[in-house]
Amino acid sequence: MESTGDEQEGERPFIDTVFDALADWRRREICQFFREGDVTTATVDELAMLLAACEPVGLDQTHGRTHEEFASELTESHLPRLDAAGVVDYDERSGTVRYWGQPTVEKWLEHVEEVDGLND
Length: 120
Description:
single chain; mainly alpha; Arc Repressor Mutant, subunit A; 3-stranded antiparallel beta sheet; 3 strands; 9% strand
């Protein structure tokens, strides 16, 4: 497909960024946490506890990780990725995550919930 010239060299279309952000179950859980709750901020520790509590059982090699392991994954990979996608604001110094809401992400999360519900 030929470029339309709307994108600068090296930039990806926004929808690619959204799909990349939602490609991992941990990032989806974080987005769902904010979307479904009445909270707009959380700490890395709170999100690590969330992930430890809802880790899918079918992930043989990774199941049973500790809170500290989840916190490390969040700070090193998942939160910077969500921040770069514009889904959250992640302040590394304070360990605080702020969610402003992202309609495109929320729409795809609804679709994920529907598909997961069909597979239960």
